[in-house]
């Protein structure tokens, strides 16, 4: 596909995807951002793009009136169901793998750490987008607190939900893991994250497509290679449907 047709396809897809949502399609900010995205695409792929650049941030006026739910909307496991019933009061996030000090953190601990709030656009590969406000703990902070090893190359997110018995998982490299907009969000549009959107916490890795935004994150594992994780391609959809591991936008 040529760059120009790719660009029309992108704009076409987004236009189509938000057909029910005039506010987004007509928003001058979004138009501007799409143009910026074009430029980024034209300037090249992963290695040429500045991986540390920030994803565009928006204002509350740009928030989508409706933010679609996609993929699983409620993990079926007995464990998760019990945590959900108790409002995640005894739930703990595990941080392990190549770290000096493995951690187990309650939701209250995560919420009392320094926080970041950002209004960003979520782009699903299936062709819809939505702008939402996310608040959570920077992943970099947790990884530093756990004393991440200099051998770590990737961070894997293990989730509570499954597709036909296989739990969802995703992974990112250290550049994205340490990126200032990469957060574990517990709050969406100023409300506690709903179960449908990934309670109690979900990843926001704003420079990448929707399927990288792991919901229901139970465990974070620092690794030096992805080969040992399930099918070896770094994520559920990467292993099962040929999705690209690097889904940069
Ligand atoms: N654990 C988990 N994370 C997931 C998914 C999922 O099914 N399970 N779906 C992915 C996809 S394809 C998208 S587009 C977004 C959807 O997030 P939302 O339901 O909050 O819109 O979550 C991503 N993360
Ligand atoms: Mo998606």
CATH topology: Sulfite Oxidase, Chain A, domain 2
Task: Compute the number of strand runs.
Answer: 10
CATH class division: Alpha Beta
Question: Strand-and-helix sequence, N→C?
Answer: HHHHEEHEEHEEHEEEEH
Structure, explained:
It holds the Pfam family Oxidored_molyb. InterPro entries: OxRdtase_Mopterin-bd_dom, OxRdtase_Mopterin-bd_sf. There is one protein chain. The chain is an alpha+beta fold. The chain has one domain: Oxidoreductase, molybdopterin-binding domain (Sulfite Oxidase, Chain A, domain 2, Alpha-Beta Complex), CATH 3.90.420. It contains 8 helices and 10 strands. It has helices at residues 3-17, 22-26, 28-42, 78-85, 107-112, 139-145, 174-178, 236-241, and strands spanning 92-97, 103-106, 116-124, 128-138, 154-163, 166-173, 183-188, 191-192, 202-204, 217-223. A 5-stranded mixed beta sheet has the order 2-1-10-5-6. Strands 3, 4, 7, 8 and 9 form a 5-stranded antiparallel beta sheet that branches. The two termini are 17 Å apart. 35% of the residues are buried. The structure holds ligand MTE and molybdenum atom. Ligand MTE is lined by residues 68-72, 124, 159, 161, 168, 197-198, 210-211, 213-216.
């Amino acid at each position: 596909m040529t760059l120009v047709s790719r660009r029309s396809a992108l704009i076409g897809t987004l236009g189509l995807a938000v057909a029910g949502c005039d506010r987004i399609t007509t928003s001058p900010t979004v138009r501007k951002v799409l143009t910026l995205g074009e430029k980024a695409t034209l300037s090249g792929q992963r290695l040429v793009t500045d991986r540390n650049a920030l994803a565009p941030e928006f204002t509350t006026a740009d928030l989508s009136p409706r933010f679609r739910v996609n993929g699983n909307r409620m993990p079926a496991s007995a464990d998760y169901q019990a945590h959900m019933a108790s409002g995640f009061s005894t739930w703990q996030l595990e941080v392990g793998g190549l770290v000096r000090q493995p951690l187990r953190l309650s939701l209250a601990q995560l919420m009392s750490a320094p926080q970041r709030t950002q209004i960003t656009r979520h782009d699903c590969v299936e062709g819809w987008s939505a702008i939402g406000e996310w608040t959570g703990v920077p992943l970099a902070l947790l990884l530093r607190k756990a004393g991440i090893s200099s051998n770590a190359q990737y961070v894997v997110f293990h989730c509570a939900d499954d597709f036909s018995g296989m739990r969802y998982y995703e992974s990112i490299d250290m550049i994205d893991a340490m990126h200032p907009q990469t957060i574990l969000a517990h709050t969406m549009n100023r409300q506690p994250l709903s179960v449908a959107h990934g309670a109690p916490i979900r990843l926001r890795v704003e420079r990448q497509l929707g399927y990288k935004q792991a919901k229901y994150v139970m465990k974070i594992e620092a690794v030096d290679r992805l080969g040992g994780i399930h099918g070896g391609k770094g994520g559920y959809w990467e292993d099962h449907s040929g999705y690209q591991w690097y889904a940069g936008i």
